[in-house]
Amino acid sequence: MLEIRNLTLSYGQHAILHDVSFDLREGESLAVIGESGAGKTSIGMAIAGLSRGKLAGRVRWRGEDLLALSPEEMRRRRWTQIALVFQSVGDALHPALRVVDQVAEPLVEHGLADRVAALERARELLHQVRLPAEKQRAFPHTLSGGEKQRAMIAMALICDPQLVIMDEPTASLDAATKKDILALIRRVCRDRTLIVMTHDLGSTARVCERAAVLYGGRILEEGPAETVLGRPRHPYTRGLLRAFPDITATKDLQGVPGTTVLPSAGCVFAPRCTQALEACRAAEPPLLDRGDGRRLACHRGGIIPVLRVDGLRKRFGNTVAVDGVSLTVEHGETLAVVGESGSGKTTLANLVMGLVPADSGEVYLEEEPVRRRSKEFYRCVQMVFQDPMESISHRFDVLRAVREPLDLLNNMPPEERLERVRQALADVQLPADDDFLAKYPHHLSRGEAQRVTIARALTVRPRLLVADEPTSALDASVQAKIIKLLLDLQEKRGMALILITHDIALARKVSDRIAVMQAGRIVECGETAAVLADPRHPYTRALISAHTPPNPPLSPPCR
Amino acid sequence: MHIDYWGAVKHSTAGRLGTGLLLAVLAAGAAAPLWPHAPEAFSQAVLQPPSATHWLGTNDVGQDVAAQLLHGARRSLAVAVAAGCLTTVLSFLIGAAAALGGRLADTALMRLTDAMLAIPTVVLVIVLAAYVPLRFTGLVLVLAFTGWATGARVVRARTLTLKNRAHVLAARTFGASRRYLLLRHILPDIAPVVLVAFIQTAQRAVLLEAGLAFLGVGDPDAPSWGMMLHQALGFYYTPAWSWWLLPPGIALAVTLFSFLLLGSALEPLLDPRLRRDEHA
Fold first, then answer.
1. Three-state SS for B222?
2. pTM for this structure?
3. Residue pLDDT, tens place only, B150-191
4. If you ran DSSP here, which 8-state letter would residue A110 be given?
5. Residue A59: its H or E element
6. CA nearest to B184, candidates A400, A508, A462
7. Could you give the ipTM of this predicted complex?
8. Which residue of A has its CA nearest to B180?
9. Do the chains contact at B2 and A355, CB–CB below 8 Å?
10. Cα B84 from chain centroid?
11. Phi/psi at A143 (nearest 5 deg)?
12. With CB atoms counted within 10 Å of each terminal CB, which end of chain A scores lower, N or C?
């Protein structure tokens, strides 16, 4: 059993690992997931006793504290008990030695077998990893990346170690080779304890039973791989998953907002987190058990809904425009509300924004019920309207229009407001010079005007943007740009987005979740990819087929 | 897109003529103190026909008709401007309050407006005159109190359509107060309506002021065209009517006509279809 407690590693002032703790039962496998620089390799090096930095904490392997061992004792355990497969396969093999000789070397080195027996064992193992005999006798540079990786795995296993640590075993391999190697790892490491460091969430991480997400040298989320990767609770885990291409996902790739900046205090992820509070910046959250076998380091208990509506109803005269709608939007996610015109989408948006009063139902902002729409509410939730020309007063120039929310919602000095206006315009890729600031809406194209309204909504840095058919008044080419812009801004700012559209094809490309609305009701709601792959409600199917191009015309029957 | 009020006036014949006539009346009012005769000064020369000393002759107590005419212009215009402003402000506030203040306020204010429209104004003013002394301030207050209803209806209707415009809704999502919405988003758009309402109420004030004075419920101390008409009518059988009765009648007609012309010149501003687009 491997038991790691408060493992801390530092080089001078730089802490690379910070209080890393986890247990691994014999035969269990763990994927350590994280971006480059998160400290993945350092964990492997520390366990294998190869780390040069200052180590603290405890690494117990089968009752022995590895950190307390002398270098010589550690050397003896390497290969025989603990094997390490390095990341860059190209450099790890000696270029002047034949593959089979290198694979046999640790066995001879540790005095476990004589040369002949070692070579015999090496051939056997290489055969197991399916490296053909002629390749076994070749020099490393004639091997492909996948073949070198096979050789490395064989070499790691030659002394029959019980703990295998693989650092990015599939990085830079093509998909087919990767699949092979993963199958190989699964086969040869079945009854060994395995730690795989990887940034590949798609397949590599899923080889393991458990997964730990590492960021800034800390574990943020850890638990059964299926749970952690299937239903991430930490904003960072979700961000990583979103950044990773997945054949079943329909949404475009998105990164995690911001870049890695490690704060001196508080939660390491707080500077990039969209739901961070003051408490997150003040104290570091402990890695706590959350019940479902998962441990999570987050003051807010994981991703929380930024907005939730419950049973909203609104009738106009005899028509019920919105009929008991309940929805949840989580921090940083895109929810598409899809339905044909007249299905109550815009009324729903107006109800959320408080522009029309609801007959019944509740709106919650970060789980707090919203009674009155205070300025605080509008600082968190902003809206982009359908017709950009209509939504800017024709008496306002660009400066006044974009500055309006700041004038009303923020008490900042005028120069700072002007600075924010210029910044917001630059964010939406519009010129921010005085000429442009002095333009009136009728001087702008529709696309430009919509960018201006987006800039306007973003000046107050909202956490949720409600976009009501933001592109339906625009040409197709402009539409694509505006949608891309919204997604870029979402990535940059990490805000949540409710995109209201009649275009299910558009929703498919941009949303994490989709809610299909018909006659004021949500008839279907779920993960976009899942809903579109297997629509349950006839209305959803109708919407999808309406967007599917008709079959090619039938060729005339043969005579 | 800014509304070119002056352009609208300048580019129409009615606007130019109306401005000219109104300026003439204004000049007459401004020139009143320079006139050698005081309007209330009695003299022995009664019912004199026009002469070198009394250009428009004298009335039955020897007062200079020209002096009274000039001072009458002052009073007419002062009442027009003061009552016009006050009435328009009332119309704007009440109309906007009805449109923006919620269903209850709307119902209450609109029923009140209907009631005001149903009561004949002149009768109401005469009744009020029994309680309020119709000196300048009293007159302006009474005119404003009885005159706001029509304007309020128009303002309410325009505000109701404007308040659901996307830019007004957008401003609400920035936490704008009603006051802000009214002053920054709605007023600029209904300014033409307000301006025309002002001209109409000013015109009405001139007419009612003259009418009240003519009926004898006006301020007996202030020389006004209505009072001149009232007094001159007693002597219509003498030749004096031609220099005493006719001038105030013509002056009144010219003033009312100039307001009418200005109003019609500004009319295109109310209807965008009649408006010349400066950016076309």
1. coil
2. 0.76
3. 999 999 999 999 998 999 999 999 999 999 999 999 998 888
4. T
5. strand A54-61
6. A400
7. 0.74
8. A408
9. no
10. 5
11. -90, 150
12. C
